[in-house]
Amino acid sequence: MSITTAGPAAAPAAAAKVETPFQRFVSEFAASKLALFGLAVFTMIALIAIFAPWIAPQNPYDLAQLDIMDGRLEPGARSGDGTMTYWLGTDDQGRDMLSGIMYGLRISLTVGAGSALIACVVGASLGLLAAYAGGRTDSAIMRLVDLQLSFPAILAALMILAFLGKGILNVVIALVLVEWAYYARTVRGSALVERRREYIEAAHCLALPTRRIIFRHLLPNCLPPLIVVMTMQVARAIALEATLSFLGLGVPITEPSLGLLIANGYEYMLSGKYWISFYPGIALLITIVSINLVGDHLRDVLNPRLKK
Amino acid sequence: MIGFARAAGVAAISTVVLAGAAQAQTLTMAVGAPVTSIDPHYHNLSPNNAMADHIFDALTAFDPRARLTPGLAESWTPVDDSTWELRLRQGVRFHNGNDFTAEDVAFTLERVPNVPNSPSSFATFTRPIRSVEIVDPHTIRLRTDGPYPLLPTDLASVRILDRETHQNATTEDFNAGRAAIGTGPFRFVAYRPGDRVELERNDAYWGQKPAWQRVSYRIITNNAARTAALLAGDVEFIDQVPTTDIERLRGDQRLSISEVVSLRVIYLALDHMREDGSPFVADNDGRPMTRNPLKDLRVRQALSMAIDRQAIVSRVMQDSAIPAGQFLPPGSYSRIPDYEPPRPDPERARRLLAEAGYPQGFRLTLHGPNDRYTNDARIIQAIGQMWTRIGVRTTVEAQPWTTFIARAGRQEFSAFLVGWGSASGEASSPLRALVASFDRERGWGASNRGRYSNPELDRVLEAALRELDDEKREKLLQEATRIAMDDVAIIPIHNQKNVWAMRRGLEHTARADELTRAQDVRPAAAR
Amino acid sequence: MTVFLLRRLLQAIGVVFAMSVLVFIGVYAIGDPVEILISPDADQIERERAIEALGLNLPLWRQYLVFLGNALQGDLGRSFVFNEPALQLILQRMPATLELAFGAMFIAILLGLPLGLYAGLRPNSIGSKVIMAGSILGFSLPTFWVGLMLIMVFAVQLGWLPSTGRGETVEVLGMRWSFLTWNGLQHLLMPAFNLALFKISLVIRLTRAGVRETVLMDYVKFARAKGLSPSRVTFVHVFKNILIPVVTVVGLELGSTIAFSVVTESVFAWPGMGKLIIDSINVLDRPVIVAYLMMIVLMFITINLIVDVTYSVLDPRVRLESKA
Fold it and tell me: Is the CB of B402 inside 8 Å of chain A's CB atoms?
């Protein structure tokens, strides 16, 4: 992660001590206790998600392990055959909520981070290209953005469902399709301003290759707004997946994500069976807050204009 | 309003009393399915038919138990094998004062198949009629090709319009209110698509007058929001109470519930079409199979026997359904009286699978919608659990009705969940549509998506549809039903209950046909 | 400039055209409207009649040509479900969505700006951290869930606000508006707030980021050095500067708010365009979907055009492409 090295504006001459940019980045990041805390929480969540199959009390995706006679049990209840305790209760299918949340984290993180990352790469590249190339290319890309922004996520998801069938990968594709335009627009906006700046002109004068100018000079200076969008979009992607699940277009029902667990339990909110959607909601909240604690601080650290 | 009343002091008391009295005359109700047209002949769709019942009348009508009763026709008798004679009610007037006569019936029968752009017309109900003969202003004869016992039943779906008023009326004229004129218990006031219909009482109604001076018929499609609107007191009556909320609403002192077992059966359809392998059936290693196990009666019996219907009813449906072993619920015409749903018996199911040559079972994907029937996605998951236990490793896939039904109609699935509401209240409707051999000319098997075919069943059904004697016809329909069920043509799961909720102090006559109508709601008798 | 606008107009026509093709193919792939709309009781003959009545018996490209021919004469087709002109249906629902979207924007700015300003001026205070953490809630909880919670608390438990639906309307300029009546405003408040949640967080974040950058700028330091009062520095110098990006983004968000208030509208039974489009998608009412999306894509193009023109006026460094 040598993002800061490239930005000429980000490397002021003030670096008197002998310190690599990466070390400087680390020490600046560590200055915020809150961000460190966020990072620690997020690491823990990621570990739970990765190791869910080994630490979860039950495999919530295996229909043979579920029993509807154990459905909608309260937190702390024991299963009908007495072999296990449902610490966070069960949903309507008799699925252990604790295991469901652990596995659900896996899917939500994959879907959220995966789609945000792919959308970011695709969108940012197209946005940079549009701003740098201008002319016809710019018009073509930006009209495509217009088209995409006005296309409802629900219709896109339905079309993908019809073409490709149901599956986690297809949800990621749907989300990428919906999200890339936001990145493209953001990056193009800031790149348009940056490309008229003196340092780009200077790079042009030095006759540096185009690719180098785009990726080593233009991109780093467009990063701060991009990171703002990205940290919000990870959260938004997870929430959007929940909404798709709410509309019946999300991940398969037997492999619930956090969003699907919430959408499922939503119907039980009025009848007082709060745990079915409350605990997945809390898990989702903690995940997103921790991502944003890190993201917010990262943005401040990386923002050249906040350096005194 | 409250603030104003308080400020006005004593003078306000009379206002409040008056407001209270006026309120008792107004019913605010919320329904879950949108009314999309006021034209009673445009789109044959339950919510539209329920609305049409407020404004219009048909010649015959269904009572709450879905049995045929007189409507605008006082009586109907077969004159000969292919002629029905109907005696029409006298002194009935349309909302604009025009008299109702046999001319209007003839006009209506002519209009029904000719409504432009209709996505689902009522022509199915009028097609058997070959010719119409007006005997006198209040007697009409309808001729059919050969005996057609279902004609009076079919006519219950055809709402009568006025020849003078509706000569060139378009669907838009109905929606705008210009043509929304019938003989029904309510007059049309306003229609706002996706929001509400406003109605007022027809004081000149020929039948029992409704209890409400005004009705606000609101559309709240989101289940939780509808329940919340009732809890918040914004509406007094809701339909389609989600099963998840019933328990809570029952416990609420301010509310009461009404329910009835409906004519809708939820069932699994199976692939009967393919001999060699079915698209979503595979052996235990995931390889496609060379023969379709679902063609084997023993496999179908095993799958049906593996399902614990009582568990689904009590755990998934929270008792708003009853286990089903045939199409119709108890008390219906042409139901087989002592034909119980199969008892859950996983042991025997495993033995049957072994006898059929699948001792280790096989793999199967069970499809279903997730936005159509009550708890549809939950039911297929529960069935997936039960099938997996007998060795049929089941994957469950739920998708929105839009994509689901197109694929089911193209025979893309091996096993899938669907439902059937017998609009006519008897067994010929599901027999003809679901299990009779697919035959375009006869109009049979239109919803037979598994393409089940059994010549013997077709023969018995044919005889039943030609039998004018109600008792003999009932026997034949029962026999056809027995053939289909013994052969496990479909796997019935349960009959849904329709559930309504209202504020205490209201009384509702629950209807088996799922229609929600303001005339069925009354203030409760004084306690 | 004229050349630029003309070129944009041509591009707009191209995009609208592309959208209609895309929707035609998409809806065709998703399913068959007749399968969904037809009564289960209908037999095969009735099905064939319905397919023909809706013009779905022709091959897809012929259907499209029919549509195109009518569209060029200003007829975007009739809804399969309502049997009314699609455009008229959409326009009927527009006021409800417009007042919801503008209400949400108003709430977002009303709450977001001051909170963001505070968080930006005192980035290390406890209050600021609470605001920032709270703003995360705005975009992490699914809208449908928050919507139901709002109804549960404010309508069911406290009984302060009506639970769902649109209030009394008055007719102005031939359209029905509810924000002009007290009852209408009461109905509007909760759904508008629910829709505003994400925007509030966005405005808070943008304002805070802008303030933090601006207070370090030389002209602000200079204004302080001149001895201007802190409040004057904040509200005149800093505020003026951050308002431009905030207004830009909020303007852009307005587009997506109008286009996709789907979830809020269904939870609150709000009879707007979002409800119409989701209902139409559910039954594959193609004429309405096509007309709606063509309209929305035009709206986005217009908004983006305005943004581009404004940029060029505000920032001479961004020049409009007048030469290809």
Answer: yes
